């Protein structure tokens, strides 16, 4: 299926549709994945039109037609990292946000449900990470997967999404209170 036949803009997948505001839009599910050492797994991507601009973000992506957010979150985790989780291991959604960003030279909006998941097994998990499930588009824009200690992540100079992730994870490590936090609309600082 082509982007033109689905109404999605050139370069974007079929899950992107024109939103009410005219921007390409999709619903997405993401995972804040924390290991037994309280490190968070993030991906680093870059702007296809400005490769020197990079940022870190949580694992996740679009919700397919007929799929719920939890199923999408574990599917995206498997595709993007090779790690398998059961839907029941997800907590939340702990956060929701609407993200406005440039993707393939198009300004897009993505409404996200973000879940928390813990890996209880001790070990680094670096050897378990796989890029085998990455799509052609992901291979063009994604640069690496990395487990981040929270103190080190707090010191990075690159953008990290969602904004305030370090404080959010620290709060969640103390225990989720059952309240989904709504972060509103988040846009890159240079927009």
Shape: globular
Contiguous runs where pLDDT drops below 50 for at least 5 residues: 1-6
H/E element sequence: HEEEEEHEEHEHEHE
Second rung of CATH, namely the architecture: Alpha-Beta Complex
Strand content: 35-45%
**What is the C-alpha radius of gyration, as a whole number of Å?**
16 Å
- The total number of structural domains is 1
Q: How does this model look, in words?
A:
By secondary structure, this protein is of the alpha/beta class. The protein has a single domain (3-174), classed as Alpha-Beta Complex (Nucleoside Triphosphate Pyrophosphohydrolase), CATH 3.90.79. It has five helices and ten strands; from the N terminus they run αβββββαββαβαβαβ. Strands 1, 2, 3, 4, 5, 6, 7, 8, 9 and 10 form a ten-stranded mixed β-sheet that branches. A hairpin with a 4-residue loop joins β2 (24-34) and β3. The longest helix has 13 residues, at 69-81. It is globular. Residues 1-6 have low confidence and may be disordered. It comes from mine drainage metagenome. Residues 24-174 form the Nudix hydrolase domain. Its cofactor is Mg(2+). Keywords: Hydrolase, Magnesium. InterPro entries: Nudix_hydrolase (IPR020476), NUDIX_hydrolase-like_dom_sf (IPR015797), NUDIX_hydrolase_CS (IPR020084), NUDIX_hydrolase_dom (IPR000086).
List keywords for this structure.
alpha/beta, 10 strands, disordered N terminus, 191 residues, Nucleoside Triphosphate Pyrophosphohydrolase, single chain, ten-stranded mixed β-sheet
